[in-house]
Amino acid sequence: MEAFFTKYLQAAKATETILYTGSVTAVKGLMIESKGPRSMVGELCTIKNPTGSDILAEVMGFDGATVKLMAYGETKGIEVGCEVVASGHVLQVPVGQKLLGRVIDATGAPYDGKGPLDPEAFYPVLASPPNPMTRAPIDRRIVTGVRAIDSLLTCGKGQRLGIFAGSGVGKSTLLSMIARNTDADINVIGLIGERGREVMDFIRRDLGEEGMKRSVVVVATSDTSSICRLRAAYVTTAIAEYFRDQGKDVMLMIDSVTRFAHAQREIGLATGEPPAQRGYPPSVFDMLPKLLERTGTNDKGSITAFYTVLVDGDDMDEPITDKVRGTLDGHIVLSRQLAQERHYPAIDVLKSISRLSKRVSGKQTVAAVNKIARLVALYEENKDMITAGVYQQGTSVNIDEAISKHQAIEDFLMQREEEPCPIDDTLDKLSLLSEIEIPEEEYYESPALGRKTTAELVHEGRIDAVTGANEQAFSEDSLPQNASAIENVSQFMTQNA
To answer: For residue 73, is pLDDT > 90?
Structure first.
């Protein structure tokens, strides 16, 4: 009986008995100004609209006694004098196992028409990253099901990578392949600033019924307000943090970080921040690492994160691209040239890097990957001579091998959208292509587990070097020289005592 009343008791405890209120004084573009209520930055408020539909808004800042708010919905119908009621709490997202298979919006409300959520708890949308000293090491491989990534750009569970490309090169398609084929326990997907058409396309066509059963999708389409697009990324991350705290291996995908940055740029400029690099205010570059660092491992589980970045004008040095690339643990670059050649996924393996690939791969696998990468680089370096017919076969053994295996490597790196590729199949083909045998133990999730760290190897090397020097120094042949050296040192010590 006590359990029956639990949710009612919790609702009663959460009820605010004292409400702080204010009134709207102005609406300036994206910003709503009000006199009062007493509130804090980030607090949720309700604006009582005369039309009868209340508007949820968030406190963004203050100007003297004026409270600056940004609405989560349309500002249509707001007039001077509308009552503003403070909630007393910041945005929280409902979490729980029953969230799987659901689509929610930027406030955590149902977006799929399947009825209300039945959450187990509420997680704060704004949270701090895990303590670096409590993060578990990344020593297990995660399978994405994308052959080019699982072989040449191997990822670890808890690693964070960016997918960088211009528009129309295949970022969303690559994400959908990962979502369907990954061996992670749960997918948490944030569609930030996407076209409305693409939302159902992604859910029905790309994820499918089986994919949705282990996924949570957060949606904030391009027509929603800036604060919705901004907070949707935090809501997505908070849900992933909940499942990580349950000991799960979570695959987090946000498409895209660029639209998250655009939303904060709109908010920053509306609140009076000065524009800095390419119109982005300083707050954008402060918020990006705070969002990205929340993923990864903690002492319970892991969040492997893939963030897409829309590269403006295919300029890899533009501010958002440069900031995100420097924060993450690796980057996957999609090439427009490869896409135009119908090479999908259009991953440029020479420009891409996974900083932790060697930590989660076996020695023979690393050797095979290095050989394939060298052959690709060698072919690209001499491509003009090869295609022009200038290069004469037999001039270089390495170039000859790069030419002979070029088509086989291309076939290996290309993969149909609907084609699954288990890790066993990937490593089999990698071994056959590189002609390097990969042992069975490297097929498992943790092929590099137990490998000595660099510090341990250096320490052992120093000990071996000292031991070898001592053995040589005190060998029988060098005893007279050693005695003389010891006598000289003793005299020096006596003179300087």
So the answer is: no
Question: What pLDDT was estimated at residue 489?
Answer: 41
Token code pair at residue 100 = 């799987």
Neighbours of 336 (CB within 10 A): 17
CB 237 within 8 A of CB 291: yes
Q: Positive or negative, the Cα torsion across 286, 292, 296, 302? A: positive
- Provide the sign of the torsion angle of the four alpha carbons 67, 70, 73, 77, taken in this order: positive
**DSSP per-residue letters across 91-124:** -EEEESGGGTT-EE-TTS-B-SSS-----SEEEE
Q: How far apart are CA 263 and CA 225, in angstroms?
A: 8
DSSP state of 408: H
The amino acid at residue 385 is: M
* Residues 6+ away with beta carbon under 8 Å from 362: 438, 439, 441, 442, 447, 448
How far out from the chain centre does Cα 195 lie? 21
Confidence of residue 497 (pLDDT cuts 50, 70, 90): very low
Kindly report, residue by residue over 360-417, the tens digit of the pLDDT: 999 999 999 999 999 999 999 999 999 888 988 888 999 999 999 999 999 999 999 8
- Collapsing DSSP to helix, strand or coil, 279 comes out as helix
How do strand 83-90 and strand 43-47 relate by DSSP bridges?
Answer: antiparallel
Residue type present at position 338: L
| Average of per-residue pLDDT values in the chain | 88
Q: Cis before residue 172, ω within 30 degrees of 0?
A: no
Q: Are 368 and 401 in contact (CB under 8 A)?
A: no
224 three-class SS: coil
Supply the DSSP string of 434-454, one letter for each residue.
HT----GGGGSS-TTTTPPPH
- Angle 282-292/226-245 helices, nearest 10 degrees? 20
Query: What is the Cα–Cα distance from 475 to 469, expressed in whole angstroms?
Result: 10
Question: Is the dihedral angle over the CA atoms 39, 42, 48, 54 positive or is it negative?
Answer: negative
CA max distance for the chain: 103
345: preceding bond cis by omega (within 30 degrees) = yes
| Residue keyed to tokens 């137990």 | 450
Q: Which pair of structure tokens corresponds to residue 321?
A: 């691209």
Share of the chain above pLDDT 90, in %: 64
d(CA 378, CA 399): 7
Radius of gyration of the chain (CA): 29
**Confidence at residue 200, expressed as pLDDT on a 0 to 100 scale:** 86
Name the burial class of residue 331, with classes exposed (0-12), middle (13-18) and buried (19+) by CB atoms within 10 angstroms of its CB.
buried
Q: Which H or E run contains 62?
A: strand 55-63
